[in-house]
Amino acid sequence: MASLTARKIIHVDMDAFFASVEQRDDPSLRGKPVAVGYAAARGVVAAASYEARQFGVRSALPSVTALRKCPDLIFVPPRFDVYKAVSGQIHAIFADYTDLIQPLSLDEAYLDITANRRGIETAWKTAKEIRARIFAETGLTASAGISYNKFLAKLASDQRKPNGQFAVTPDMGAAWVETLPVTRFHGVGPVTARKMASLGIERGADLRAKSLDFLQQHFGSSADWYYGIARGIDERPVNPDRERKSSGSETTFDRDLIDGGEIEEGVLRQADDVWAWCERAGEFGRTVTVKVKYGDFQIVTRSRTQPSVVASREALRSASQALIRSVLPTAKGIRLVGVTVSNFERLLSETASELPLFG
């Protein structure tokens, strides 16, 4: 990096992670368009291989749409236990280089290597070594972005995908940002991008040309963030202690449901999924939320918070059932249900069962 005082941040992003694991484990899938998910009428693509992406298949795309775009698409069911195990291998590699690791998901993380634990000459060479080790130990490729802050490192990791890396040095950061479309910026979603376009903001240079007062007038509390990133500024540290705020699970039914018993069964299955995660993570929350999406895509949620944590599977099931019953009976078909637990408190699993139950 060009500055001795600059932080050295690497953003590592696995290439088509779920789909690549499936192609690694089943050689017959290699070189073919693969989607992780289910080809059911209400199915959704969880991940797509690069071969599938060439046809416009992306994660969160309805399965029927994905098959229209790519009739030869091969669906494979997700194996989250396998993905989690591989992610653990990758994070063990990260830990050889720094203690400052901030996971964003199973397949990407920020690393602050400013301290240079292994004495490698440059951040570029460090990223290259990490990627080589990931490939040697897992058979999977990763891309990396190297820069002096998190915003630029994440942008950079997309620049040479798949299986590449790109560095944004302190002397090029602000000018490089000006060349990029704002749709690539973290914090600028589709709605904000459309609003920016209506204000004549389509690239980083357009965003930088706007005053802070202008941005505050049109974007409120997000103005400071937009003003900073337009200049390549991001002071957020890599935070290895960032706590997960919630854990949830949801399912889309094969058909819109009206029968209360079937709807409750769906909710209880999601509650069981969430409880399994809580037990593994040792995280127990005080707030339970049930989400309902109707056939017309209207979404409603019902939540309940109480002084002590939800400390057993039975308590979570009971709470979830009570919440879903608050919207039953229904004359309008329900398409999707979900359960989320939040307001976590870390507890020893041995003592958790002794705490008061929800309700």
Q: Which parts are unreliable, with pLDDT below 50 for 5 consecutive residues or more?
A: 347-359
β content, as a range? Answer: 15-25%
Which sheet architecture does the biggest sheet show? Answer: 5 strands, mixed
Overall outline: globular
- The count of strands amounts to 12
Task: Find the CATH topology of the domain at 246-352.
Answer: Dna Ligase, domain 1
Task: Supply the number of helical segments.
Answer: 14
Instruction: State the fourth-level CATH superfamily of the domain at 246-352.
Output: DNA polymerase, Y-family, little finger domain
Which structural category do the helix and sheet elements fall into? alpha+beta
What is the H-and-E element order? Answer: EHEEHHEHEEHEHEHHHHHEHEEHEH
At CATH level 2, the architecture of the domain at 246-352 is 2-Layer Sandwich
Give structural attributes:
359 residues, MutS, DNA mismatch repair protein, domain I, DNA-binding, DNA polymerase, domain 1, DNA repair, Dna Ligase, domain 1, 37% helix, 4-stranded antiparallel beta sheet, mutator protein
